[in-house]
Amino acid sequence: MSDFYCDEVLSGHTPVEKIIETERVLAFYHTRPFYPVHIVVIPRQHIDSLLTLQDDTLLAELFRVIQQVAAQVVAEQGTARVVTNLGDYQESKHLHWHIISGKAKNG
To answer: For the structural domain made of 4-101, what CATH number should be given?
Structure first.
């Protein structure tokens, strides 16, 4: 199965608007947003999902970035949701979180 985040985003084939970038984590605006504010946070290394993540220091770094981005979204929008999907809900099999605000766009 292909991995959009490894194959496209991290390889540079699909350019993204970066928000925060560390050695191990990347936060960027979703390439096809479903919400007025739709940000994705991913680890730079391939990890299938939250259920397979075993590196506590990476988890802590991911959550520091998620916290920073969510605080920025709340400051600007007044509200945010932080979501990760598992199992059949997880379309892309690369660990990622969505930080979203606003009503879902139609279509």
So the answer is: 3.30.428.10
